[in-house]
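User: Let's play a game. I give you a shape written as tokens, and you guess the letters that built it. Ready? Here's round one.
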């Protein structure tokens, strides 16, 4: 399998998140440890943007989340993260606070990926890991 483009080692970073908790910061999304996570602070929607090390062909996105109901992915291939185009929107099953693993085949050239949690199965949701191939 190709290398994960969404890691700090690959040069990726979380450049924006609509909320943050010092115990569970957005940077945890890019860590290889599935036990660390970014926690929303209530209310929806919540968003985060990942900047890849450069523009890359994205073929697959894997997410590991908890309590997420509606999830949206958009991409941007310009130098500034300001004009995003839709990739997918999905409703995830309620797993009673267990981890939700989703794998989506996609086809886009992206420098930035914006993830939106449109709604959740509870007051709070978490993103444990995003992998981009």
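Assistant: Ready! My guess for every position:
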């Amino acid at each position: 399998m190709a290398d994960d483009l969404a890691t700090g080692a690959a040069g990726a970073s979380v450049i924006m998140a609509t909320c943050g908790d010092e115990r569970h910061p957005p940077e945890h999304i890019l860590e290889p440890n599935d036990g660390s996570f970014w926690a929303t602070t209530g209310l929806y929607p919540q968003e985060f943007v990942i900047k890849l090390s450069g523009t890359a062909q994205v073929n697959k996105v894997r997410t590991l989340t908890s309590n997420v109901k509606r999830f949206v992915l958009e991409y941007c291939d310009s130098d500034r993260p300001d004009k995003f185009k839709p990739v997918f929107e999905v409703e995830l099953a309620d797993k009673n606070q267990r981890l939700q693993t989703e794998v989506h085949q996609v086809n886009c050239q992206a420098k930035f990926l914006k993830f939106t949690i449109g709604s959740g199965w509870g007051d709070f949701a978490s993103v444990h890991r995003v992998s981009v191939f």
